[in-house]
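Hi R.,

Here are the chain sequences for the assembly we discussed:
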Amino acid sequence: MSQDAVVPDTREALLQAGRKLFSDKGFDGASVRDITAGAGANLGAITYHFGSKEALYEAVVSSTIAPLAERLMATVGGPGDPLDRVEGVVREYFAYLMDYPEMPRLFIRSLLASGMPPAPAQEHLKRVLAALVGLIREGQAIGRIRPGHPALMALGLMSHSLHLTIMRPALARMAGFDLDDPTQRGIALDHIVRTVRGGLALGQEGPA
Amino acid sequence: MSQDAVVPDTREALLQAGRKLFSDKGFDGASVRDITAGAGANLGAITYHFGSKEALYEAVVSSTIAPLAERLMATVGGPGDPLDRVEGVVREYFAYLMDYPEMPRLFIRSLLASGMPPAPAQEHLKRVLAALVGLIREGQAIGRIRPGHPALMALGLMSHSLHLTIMRPALARMAGFDLDDPTQRGIALDHIVRTVRGGLALGQEGPA
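And here is the predicted structure of the full complex:
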């Protein structure tokens, strides 16, 4: 391995170790010593590659949410029926949370600590939220999506996957439902898709 | 005030201080010193009234979830259309989380730390979950609720209120939506009720 390749590897290893430790222990709980040890790097590696622990945290959050935000923006802005695009967003979000369980943990730790999502994620979130609100308004305008508060509807799309991800071990032990099993994962995704579509479709609430 | 009344007051003050500090800082982060100071009690008060910090935590969790579990069980077991009873459950859960924002924080801290809800809450949760599964099966049997996995549907009922509660400060700052305002709180509850009914009602998913 050339020396050129070592520098990006260490940087990537620090991001991975930071993602795991910040999500497990929070920003304050994850020490520089733990993160550098987890990355197999020396104690000065965070300063060398990122400048500070705060800057590493920022890079961890950004690198975790940015690829998801790009995918969701592409689906929201793509062609097709608004409700189908909403379904596409929900499917991508679910798949991403299954692959990156650290993401909801980073977010929820920040919400518990400060009441807000991690600062480096807020611009991504605002952008995705605004795009989803636009998509929901589009669906409402053509009578595909029922009347309702677009921002609450947009946020609500995210609640099922987030809830199941956070409950993942409890779901297995208390309800015998294992999200690591591909069949059960498919059942969970189908449940979320049907629930979201039913919850948004026009005139579908059932008689009161 | 008679001396008889002082003992229960200290006990109640410890429960309240414990509820706040365990939800803000987690079990490990909330010290005996902080809790007794918050309750205006002496350092030995937790040992005197509960036996240990662990036992206080258990009493905090139980006293927080037990009244909610009773209310939900009564609504699930009450008369009326299954979908209307589901709506009643969702309304009570939302109102309870608005009044006791410590509850979801206690739960989520435990889920982050151990992957499981707080141990003293698990029996309550299992009981409510089993009752909700029965209610959903009843609705499915008479064609009021669509086919689907009853345990996922039951857990999903809880996700919207939980999500909005955890997002409460972010909702105000990022979406201008203030759950402390009675009108906006009503809009949020209406949103949740319509979303849940639409997501569960038979044949309501909208064409794929």
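Residues 91 and 124 of chain A are 19 Å apart (CA to CA). Chain A touches chain B through 56 residues (CB under 8 Å).

Let me know if anything looks off.

Best,
T.
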